[in-house]
UniProtKB/TrEMBL annotation, chains A, B:
It catalyses: N(2)-acetyl-L-ornithine + L-glutamate = N-acetyl-L-glutamate + L-ornithine; L-glutamate + acetyl-CoA = N-acetyl-L-glutamate + CoA + H(+). GO terms for molecular function: L-glutamate N-acetyltransferase activity; L-glutamate N-acetyltransferase activity, acting on acetyl-L-ornithine as donor. Catalyzes two activities which are involved in the cyclic version of arginine biosynthesis: the synthesis of acetylglutamate from glutamate and acetyl-CoA, and of ornithine by transacetylation between acetylornithine and glutamate. This is Arginine biosynthesis bifunctional protein ArgJ, mitochondrial.
Length: 437, 437
């Protein structure tokens, strides 16, 4: 089949090499400051056919308060089911590790897949037992969260993963290089690792947050902090962060069997426990939300074959639901996304997507504009339902840029929603046409 | 902008010429028998930049009972609004003409666009007045249905269209060549005209049905018969035909501002009026439904860049809604469609789409199979949630064929739905990236 695929796909792939894909290496962080008390590493366990890194472990000797959001897909992968049970069983406390493997999704693998996932968690807990704080030694509850990404319907190669875990744990650390190896290990079709960190200065101390993510067909990510956040606050901060980040991006609208984002807080930086009523709550929540948003935007920038980063800004909606459905419908429209790739100011397709989104729309109150990334003047395409005479040269200049904001004013209310999406290029087809082979 | 686009797109386009696009000329009907009492023609009015045909008129001297289904998009194009009003004003009777222009959608053109559409209808009615039956002469109600397709936000060039109408009407006829010219005139990104006809033998006479359609970003079509069908029956037959044809296909899931399908019956073949209680009702309804389904399938076969024709057959659903949402979610999944283009037996993506469709799904009762077009043995991919060991060579053989049926058994009930879709190729991107330019 590979040969067949090669004949169908390779020619285009070669052309693409001389194409207009922007340089994305600029998004790779060159240094970072990472939260206290977390050890991390990523290696190649041999699960991926190539020699690429495919296994990472994040470990905290101190037990963490943790929360995670999981895919709503009816076919929940084994690691999703196991991780959800661990969090429920522990009441969102006592988490020590996050293990992510790439190359095998362990999805639609039945009871065997569940056993495999539990075996990976157990192996991690045995290998890390000695490294846990005395405070944690006595608790024998499961303390590992799992994420997997890769081909569906295949069981993970347990021996290779167990060997890989041992190798990974031998060389754990907290340097930028250690974090980068982990960020690389969770990638599949990603063209660059997505790793970010930042600090939040409080009155008496500094807290640090860091995280990594991968896209696009399957969305995985985690962010961690050394702030001492109470379990309920961990939950509410994660919900707030996700709503404004990973739930506001679109590559192709598909929702995988494995999508998972986890948030861990180990309190290693000290200070009194942060609850939703603490003065530190909002600053730390906003810092984590910003980090999550930046990680989500990197997933869009690295959308399969993406050559454009497009912000879809919907205003004047009658309800928050209307704003959200319009933003996501535009962000998912193949016709809109191919027009962006073609650098075609085809606002009709944007309007068309608004029209079939299902939102309450008043054609005579709807306006659409392009807001250039370079800060130059906004280009009005449609004003209160009236098409404007477009300066195509100007439109071309704006669309030639790597970033663009599409502003849609529904003129029907005061609700708004911003999504981030990318264009739909030949490489989206090439990458996804031969992914499994 | 064209040059810019050229540099982004043309290289791939050239590669595509040596690519694997199947020969679609085999779908062009070489002859046909057409309903009595309909005159038709298609010409180039100069609205399209190139010299391609872009205007057609279908005319019946005898007034027709007629019905139409229109896009649900909130931005209804001027011809949609005008045609709906004509049908409502006439109570679905007294229709003499259908005028379709391609190259300009006359959508999002405000009151001016409405005036333009009415002017095109009025010009048609004046030019055809003398040709109408004496029975029709006295009625001065609007009697023209309009359809437009092309770029959104541009007013139609009235002078060119009026000149075009005169030229078109000078050479009306009922030969296969006349019908083919009309079928060509409604095309935009279509690579071949979609024209079909068939006969229905009744006890005492033969009725003939014929129709044409175009896709894909905008869906237009009409079918006509010389059977004497009552207005209510025209309505119910159209609804039945659409549900089982144009509402069961997917190219990219977008719903345009102009989508319109019309059905006209002029009774020119004689016989007593056919109502829903007539013996002729079901035979004629089924013949028209079959014709509509074949026209809809041609739209899928000619989906922008389509190299595969895929039947998505959902069975065992808990409700008719579940069956429909699963079929349409799979049919619209970019990941599923790119896998078909790659000829990759990536059933995980099909299952994934089932899982996020929103339908009630029992993972352990779900089965997925590929049914080869050549009648050879079915390839089981997933049986009651258990992945099967796939013979990749066999899978490759099946996927290499131009047609394929994906069979999904949800194992949760007795409802089913069949949709038709196509793959997602480089050419989908190329065609839609530079459509407007």
């Amino acid at each position: 089949m590979r040969n067949k695929l090669f004949s169908r796909v390779a020619a285009y792939g070669r052309v693409r090499l001389v194409g207009t894909m922007p340089d994305k290496t600029k998004f790779i962080s060159q240094k970072g400051t990472y939260p206290k008390g977390f050890l991390i590493n990523g290696v190649s366990s041999g699960v991926k056919a190539n020699a690429k890194k495919d296994l990472m472990v994040l470990f905290s000797p101190t037990p963490c308060n943790a929360a995670a959001v999981f895919t709503k897909n009816a076919f929940q992968a084994a690691p999703v089911q196991v991780s959800r049970n661990v969090l429920q069983g522990n009441g969102g406390t006592g988490i020590h590790a996050v293990v992510v493997n790439s190359g095998c999704a362990n999805a639609v693998t039945g009871e065997g897949g569940i056993r495999d996932a539990k075996a990976i968690a157990k192996a991690t807990e045995e290998l890390t037992q000695l490294h846990k704080d005395s405070s944690a030694k006595k608790d024998n509850l499961p303390s590992t969260l799992l994420m997997s990404t890769g081909v569906i319907g295949q069981r993970p190669k347990l021996d290779k993963i167990k060997q890989g875990l041992a190798i990974t744990l031998k060389d754990m650390g907290s340097s930028h290089q250690h974090w980068m190896r982990a960020a690389e290990a969770i990638c599949t079709t990603d063209t660059f690792p997505k790793l970010l960190s930042k600090q939040v200065k409080m009155a008496d101390r500094v807290y640090t947050v860091a995280g990594a993510s991968k896209g696009a067909a399957t969305l995985l990510g985690f962010f961690v902090t050394d702030a001492p956040i109470a379990p309920d606050a961990v939950q509410s901060i994660l919900r707030h962060a996700i709503t404004n980040s990973f739930n506001s991006i679109s590559i192709d609208g598909d929702t995988s069997t494995n999508d998972t984002i986890a948030f861990l807080a180990n309190g290693a930086a000290g200070g009194s426990e942060i609850t939703s009523s603490s003065a530190e709550y909002e600053p730390i929540r906003d810092a984590i939300t910003e980090l999550a948003q930046d990680l989500a935007k990197l997933v869009v920038r690295d959308g399969e074959g993406a050559t454009k980063f497009v912000t879809v800004q919907v205003r004047g909606a009658k309800s928050v639901q209307d704003a959200a459905i319009v933003a996501s419908t535009i962000s998912n429209s193949a016709l809109v996304k191919t027009a962006f790739f073609g650098e075609d100011a085809n606002w009709g397709r944007i309007l068309c997507a608004v029209g079939y989104s299902g939102a309450t729309v008043n054609p005579n109150a709807t306006s659409v504009s392009f807001v250039p990334a370079d800060g130059s003047e906004t280009l009005k395409l449609l004003v209160n339902g009236e098409p404007q005479n477009i300066d195509e040269t100007r439109a071309s200049e704006i669309l030639a840029q790597e970033e663009l904001t599409v502003d849609i004013d529904l003129g029907s209310g005061s609700f708004e929603k911003t999504n981030w999406t990318c264009d739909f290029s030949y490489d989206y087809v090439r990458i996804n046409a031969d992914y499994r082979s």
